[in-house]
Amino acid sequence: ANDCFPFAVLLSYQPIWFPSGRRSVWYFSTRKTWAQAEKFCRSIGGNLASVRNRLENKMLLRLIKKKEGRYTPTWIGGSDAQTNGIWFWSDGTNYQYTNWCRGEPNNDRQRQHCLQMNKRCWDDLECFKVRPFICVKRRW
Ligand SMILES: [Ca+2]
Ligand SMILES: [Ca+2]
């Protein structure tokens, strides 16, 4: 039922815009698995968020802090589920800028294939864990 998100509710969310002005970013505090989160983002015409540079990374962290009151681990759109060690952004953005925490991605127990923003840096994590998440939508 949660997958069916009324547009009127969406209107009450305040997205932030990346500096390019072409991509808006939406924070959702509902905890979902990575795949559920990506599916939800697609249902509103977007994808889980990709990060293209340091400024965008900083903006997402600031958004998490603002919405949760602290740096809560949050899903964004990176995944190496197809081939371990080959990372993709679910929105098709080139995987170029990275901000991995020291020692990450470590593919712990060979089963970490999804990217969470963890405090100030990134960590690969089991995709079935539930986290709040950030969607990105291109300007329509
Ligand atoms: Ca992996
Ligand atoms: Ca990890």
Second rung of CATH, namely the architecture: Roll
H/I helix tally: 3
State the major sheet: 4 strands, antiparallel
* Top CATH class: Alpha Beta
So, the CATH homologous superfamily? Mannose-Binding Protein A, subunit A
What is the strand content?
A: 25-35%
Topology, element by element:
Layout: H1 7-11, E1 16-17, E2 23-32, H2 34-43, E3 47-48, H3 54-68, E4 74-79, E5 88-89, E6 114-118, E7 121-125, E8 131-138
Antiparallel strand pairs: 1-2, 2-8, 3-8, 4-5, 4-6, 6-7
Structure description:
- There is one protein chain.
- The protein has 140 residues and is α+β, with helices and mostly antiparallel strands.
- It has a single domain, classed as Mannose-Binding Protein A, subunit A (Mannose-Binding Protein A, Chain A).
- 21% of the residues lie in helices and 29% in strands.
- The protein has helices at 7-11, 34-43, 54-68, and strands spanning 16-17, 23-32, 47-48, 74-79, 88-89, 114-118, 121-125, 131-138.
- The longest helix is centred in the middle third of the chain and has 15 residues, at 54-68.
- It is globular, with a radius of gyration of 14 Å.
- The mean pLDDT is 92.
